[in-house]
Structure formats: structure tokens, C-alpha cells
Amino acid sequence: xxxxxxxxxxxxxxxxDGEPPVVLGLxxxxxxxxxxxxxxxxxxxxxxxxxxxxxxxxxxxxxxxxFLVGVYGGSVIFRRLKRGRPxxxxxxxxxxxxxxxxxxxxxxxxxxVWDVGRTARPTPRPRIGR
Length: 130
What we know:
Order of helices and strands: HHHH
Mean pLDDT: 79
Oligomer: single chain
Structural class: mainly alpha
Largest sheet: none
Helix content: 55-70%
């Protein structure tokens, strides 16, 4: 019965080789990346502001709210990066950005005319022995 249903409907998976989307169109790895970045940016900033104004308890409550807003904002950014692109597109773009900022030679970034260094007409070789 299951084989017949699968044969009639075909494979229903959206992305067979990729991680499935879990929350807000993000995979588990992408949620982890967004959460870590938001936590590393949001927590120290809010704690510093709370210490400056003398309201650490309010700052900790605000941290939770800002964390949720940051994860939602990160999901919007990731969805725009992934829309209509193949798997791994934004990872390659991020690696290229890192190469441009910090150097390296993982990707060829030169555009233009490429040749093998030969001329249209080879130069005659000198004859030796005659």
C-alpha cells in the first residue's frame, strides 16, 4: 500500500539533501547560529545599559524579549538569503566575503579574459646543430 502511494505521489520532500526547516524556515543549525550571534550581541549590550541605569532586573527581562526579536529578525534575513537559491548558497557567499576581508585563496574572484599564456603565432625555435 505504501509503495503504491509513493509511486503515485512521488517523493514529497522539498530538500532531500539539506536539513529540514524547523522554525520560521530555518534549519536547526541556522537557528543555532542566529541564537549565538544574537546572544553574543544582545546580552552584553543590555547588561551594560542596565548597569549604567541601575536596573539590572529590567535589563535581564528585556534581554529575553530582544532575544526573541533577534531570532525572528535573523530568520527573516536567512529566508531572504535562501530564497530561490541552491543549497549552501549563503555559506559560499559568506566564505567569499571572508576571503575578501581577511585574505586567502579558496575562491577565484578575478573576472575578465583568461588565457593559457600562448600567442596566436608561435615564435620559431632556434635550430641547434645546423
